[in-house]
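User: Hey, quick favor. My workstation is busy. Could you predict this chain's structure for me?
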Amino acid sequence: MTELKLPTEYIDDAEISISELATNAHLHPEDPSTPPEIWIWASTAPLPELVFSVFDACRNRLPLPSRRAPDALEEHGNGLAIVQSLAYETSSYYTRSRLAPKPVQGKVTRFTQVVSIPWPKPEHAITEPIAAVRLLLALQSRGVSASLRRAMSALNVVIHDELVVRANVDAYHWRALPGHCTFPFIDLHETVEAVIAHVDASSECRT
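Assistant: No problem, here it is.
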């Protein structure tokens, strides 16, 4: 964030927010053998953003958004309210670990901060075959059953024989409730998280 020459207050807000989420995940572990993980990446659509996520192995419930402003006099229970007050957007969803020896199911709580500078364009064009293979490998590394299939002129990534993601015209596309999903090739991390959230939420519904 310093290399991007972001304002000091922007960095301070991110440090406070990630500390709140990481502390909460550390103090209330569901599975002590799977430590919390912190993920940070850039996203380009719909706005240039930095995405900050904290993963933990607890799947009992997703944290509900706080409906009150943080109280400076309270020592506990302010974490999510503080994050919401400092971030552009907050959310949580089911996902899987990135750093564990084997993928572990859990959830992630995340926040985003909009960046007022444009992201540099990729040095090389991301072709459709490269984009499809990158998505395939990323999903498989997280324990998601996926395969490549060609249909007409597009190369598709098929997940669990149910969800079909098309790598076509600089973006990933798939149909899922409530509508059509589209992510630019450069936003690979966002695409992977969206697919896993869809797959794991569907499995939760089935069980």
